[in-house]
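#dry-run=false #mode=assembly
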Amino acid sequence: EIVLTQSPGTLSLSPGERATLSCRASQSVSNNYLAWYQQKPGQAPRLLMYGASSRATGIPDRFSGSGSGTDFTLTINRLEPEDFAVYYCQQYGSSPITFGQGTRLESK
Amino acid sequence: EVQLVESGGGLVQPGRSLRLSCAASGFAFNDYAIHWVRQAPGKGLEWVSGISWNSATTGYADSVKGRFTISRDNAKNSLYLEMNSLRAEDTASYYCARSRHYYFYMDVWGKGTTVTVSS
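#status=ok
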């Protein structure tokens, strides 16, 4: 099983700043099949990124993803108030599909 | 509108069974794999089970293997999760989510149904 470790656990930033979220895998993620999801309280997760660096439909270009192998990053430029949420990475290249434990992005 | 709607959650005693359903609309259900993902109160996301478009491939997390069974009825655009021998640690919101292939990202999610296992 691929274990995904996200850091930091909580990130406190102000609107307009840049957020950098990390996701490290215990072994190489097949085909860079790494996705990022955003979840707000009381809501279902929403797909942000897939294939490590491709934005899902309707996701603003201030969101970007990078990385390969075992190290992946989600960057959010110019934070907007609606960006404060919990973010999860997920690998979907091998069984079982696994999620990271999440990074909480909170407003300072 | 593309939509997944879960149902069947509720309060159940430990050791009992429950069947969750996920109704799909607005897309070609039989073209997609579907997964169940759960979230315990205040915790992160956990993949539970998945099934390919034709039911040829199914998978389970170790935590539910042997107790949960996933199935689908493409004629009814529906997905099911039969949960047996429920435990307190199965208490969670259960989401169904679609993916274009079994090993693929999940691009549409339902709003979830809540299962509480308690005496």
